[in-house]
Design goal:
This protein is α+β, with helices and mostly antiparallel strands and 330 residues long. Helix content is 16%, strand content 25%.
Length: 330
């Protein structure tokens, strides 16, 4: 089996903690110039942007030299450039580091901050922010938390070690504990282990359960409850399906407070709206470091705000055109 040659290192530095785009020109094609390929790849609507980047010398080859606007197409050639990103609403909450050594960084992520660049969230992500604040351009994420979920996320310092840490999560060798606030149902027998098959389709916001072999397993425990019908739950996922805990809590009839997708998909929040966070927190991570052998047990210092000030939280008006909080039994 022929070994694939790794791409050359990027000649461009990161910008705002974001890597430049790398494009490898395909071995087959009818393009006469690099420009023609980039326009086809990025879309005709961006032809003007491509022309502007080439004219300004912002597209470079492996040697760091600018690619000329009329540069001939060379199969297998690599080019790099930075995307022009639209402005993003800053997430006005701190991202705190709870542990750091020469191999890993464990951060306590706030609600509303995406873990890694994706879609419209690029520079306002935990990865980009940590790269900037800690000065570690090679930092990478070993796993992801939903943007709306707060709590502990593990990042790796050395790219060559990232696979070892990712394997911890893939092979279920990380003990994860979550905390959630949701309605209290006296008739719901807890603790219990929920098993189901969850499907998340690309382009569809909400995941859903289907018949078949379970691929999602969660233990749900009641920690405490208080008037008016509010409870704190301890959630222990044995698997890592998208939205797994949110789907399982909703299936039990106690959807997590502040959830915009379960039980019903709500109208999108306006950009920059941060008043009603999902009441879900990745509280603990416990694992044996695959590189150093160190036993780690790390805990988030965040608190779910609706527990301490539920009356105020519940009274916060819902965004116009968006349903209010999930009903809490009285």
């Amino acid at each position: 089996m022929r070994r694939r040659t790794p791409p050359p290192p990027s000649p461009l530095p990161q910008r705002d903690g974001i890597d430049p785009v790398r494009v490898r020109l395909p071995g087959e094609g009818a393009w006469a110039t690099v420009r023609e390929h980039l326009v086809e790849r990025l879309g005709e609507a961006r032809a003007g942007i491509v022309d502007g980047m080439l004219a300004a010398g912002l597209v470079v080859g492996a040697d760091g030299a600018a690619v000329a606007p009329d540069a001939a197409y060379v199969p297998g050639m690599f080019v790099w450039f930075h995307r022009e990103l639209p402005p993003e609403a800053p997430v006005p909450f701190p991202l705190e580091v709870v542990y750091r050594d020469e191999h890993i960084v464990v951060a306590d992520k706030p609600h509303f901050l995406a873990t890694t660049p994706r879609g419209s969230h690029v520079t306002e992500t935990a990865l980009a922010r940590l790269r900037r604040e800690l000065g570690i351009p090679a930092l990478g994420a070993a796993h992801r938390l939903d943007r709306l979920t707060a709590g502990l996320v593990l990042f790796t310092v050395r790219p060559e070690e990232r696979g070892a840490y990712q394997a911890l999560f893939r092979e279920r060798r990380v003990h994860k504990v979550y905390e959630a606030l949701a309605p209290h149902d006296p008739g719901l027998a807890l603790p219990r282990t929920v098993r189901s098959r969850i499907v998340k389709e690309r382009g569809v916001l909400a995941a859903y359960e289907v018949a078949g072999e379970p691929n999602a397993v969660s233990r749900v425990e009641l920690v405490e409850h208080r008037a008016p019908g509010l409870a704190r739950y301890r959630l222990l996922p044995a698997t890592g399906q998208t939205h797994q805990l949110r789907v399982h809590m909703n299936a039990l009839g106690v959807p997590i407070l502040g959830d915009p997708l379960y039980p019903e998909v709500a109208a999108p929040e306006p950009v920059g709206e941060f008043r009603r966070p999902l009441q879900l927190l990745a509280r603990e991570l416990e694992f044996t470091d695959p590189v150093t052998g160190t036993e780690h047990r790390l805990r988030s210092g965040r608190e779910l705000e609706a527990w301490a000030s539920y009356d105020r939280w519940a009274a916060t008006p819902a965004t116009p055109g968006r349903p209010g909080r999930p009903a809490v039994p009285q």
